[in-house]
Amino acid sequence: MSTDRYMSPLSERYASREMQYIFSPEKKFKTWRQLWIALAKTERELGLEITEEQIAELEAHKDDINFEVAKEREKLVRHDVMSHVYAYGVQCPKAKGIIHLGATSCYVGDNTDIIIMDEALKLVKAKLVNVIAKLARFADTYKELPTLAFTHFQPAQPTTVGKRATLWMQEFLMDLEDLTYVAGSLKLLGSKGTTGSQASFLELFDGDQAKVDKLDPMIAEKMGFASCYAVSGQTYSRKVDTRVANVLAGIAASAYKMSNDIRLLQHLKEVEEPFEKNQIGSSAMAYKRNPMRSERIGSLSRYVMIDALNPAITSATQWFERTLDDSANKRLSIPEAFLATDGILDLCLNVVDGLVVYDKVITKHLMAELPFMATENIMMDAVKKGGDRQELHEKIRKLSMEAGAHVKKEGKENNLLELIAADPAFQLSLEELQAAMDPSWYVGCAPVQVKQFLTSVVSPVLEENKELLGIKAEIHV
Length: 477
Description:
Layout: H1 9-14, H2 17-22, H3 25-45, H4 52-60, H5 67-77, H6 80-91, H7 105-141, E1 146-151, E2 154-160, H8 161-185, H9 199-204, H10 209-222, H11 239-267, E3 271-272, H12 292-307, H13 309-316, H14 327-353, E4 356-357, H15 359-373, H16 375-384, H17 389-408, H18 416-421, H19 430-435, H20 446-464
Antiparallel strand pairs: 1-2, 3-4
């Protein structure tokens, strides 16, 4: 590792080796050579004077890239594509004259960008599906465990631990839908020429429009795509990058929401992210167990969400058929959005897989608030014994305020049940009131909702993507 220059933390700390390889120079330049071979083969099949021997020579050197030759050439000509055309030609002297024939730089650059984003989306999808699967197991395990719900982060009507996890899961499922749609819409640029008019190819094929029409579909098929974009300037529309980045930003937002909830739950000591045996929570406070993984999810997620503005602004500011002010930005914004999202999903996999639930603390917190939430049921029981509903409502309101002051001002336990039992208007003993404090009575349909959600919504998605299941995440630091 170099210690005398900047190294991206996305590579050093966060992103997986698989995602890093997808955006590596080796992957990029090998794809360029595959595209040059696809172009040469297609041109030969359409009648240009390209020999099998030339194709074979290109095939023989498709993977052994002479990087140093290309690097030295680029210092001279200041053009990355032509430097690699030159380097490929050094290795393939018989074929050098037909490499990149009729094409512009975006033939290799833009088609490779699409191919790489397609592969990166597949890896993101696999990890996203596994996050959903792990959340599904968690939700099923704790579907019946009552817990305080919160609105405005104030205690509200109880839910279950599993039901809360379905809320996280539902947002990730929305992201999966968006990802599947956008990934399914990706097409290659094809070989459109310098302004998208394919004029160079019309010249190569002596004005034969039928042959020009066959060019893009044949290249797409060789590269594993169904089709190319019907029209373009020199580049594919940068709106494509915007759509991809928005999918990643959506995943980041969902992960951020979940990680924030986990951080708050860890503060309450109800649910904790995994904490390793030798992990240090604080350099000063040795007792601390900071939710560092969830905090890192939030930190990386903010980056991805903001980074989505880069492709949007780039798309909006492209002039006519092509400007080059997209290039430097794309080199940063697209790879780093994927690398950061990859890191986020690895963290989500790790956190969800190791969540620790402290059910006794959860129950303690719930029972401290439950008397307030049970007042409607208590009032109905008192009405059944002959009480006046309106009179009882006012009494419960006043007693609740008195109990609230007992808790907040004096720091004592909730005594609402004792206050109600002492009021003859309710005709209910303390024992009767305490018998009504079963938390499971107050969670409504939450357990059933979890079962139905897992059965009707989640299970079909996991079944459809079962070949992607089984990924384990490695957290570097």
